[in-house]
Amino acid sequence: MILLLLVFSVLGFEPMQDTVSLEQVEVYAPALDRFAHGQKVTNLDSKVLEAYSARSLGDMLQEKSPVFVRQYGAGMLASPSFRGTSAGHTAIFWNGLPINSPSLGQSDLSILPVEAIDRVQLQFGSAGALFGNEAIGGSIHLGSKTDFGKGFEGKLSQTIGSFGLFNTSVSGAFSSKKFSSKTRLFRRIAENDFGYQDLSQPGTPEVREDHAEVEQVGLVQDLAWNLSSKSQVKAAFWWNKAEREIQPVMGSNTTDLQSDESIRAVVDYFRFGKKSVWNLKTGLVRDKMIFNESLNQTRQFFLASDWDFEAGENWKFKAGARATFVKGDLSTYSETDQRFEFYQSAAWKTSEDLSFSFNLRQFAYPGDVVPFLPGIGADWRFLNKEKQELLLKASLGKGFKVPTLNDRFWSPGGNPDLLPEESINGEIGLHWLKKGNFSWEQSLTYYRMEVDNWIIWLPQGSVWSPENIRKVQNQGLEFQGNAGWKLGSWDWELGLSYTFSEALDLTTEPSNPQQLPYTPEHQANGNLSAEFKGFGLNLSSFFVGPRAIGTGNARVMDAFQIWNAGLTFSKLTWGKVQFPLSFQVLNLLDKDYQVLYLRAMPGRSYQLNLTIHL
Question: Most C-beta atoms within 10 A of its C-beta, which of 28, 106, 214, 366?
Answer without folding.
Answer: 214
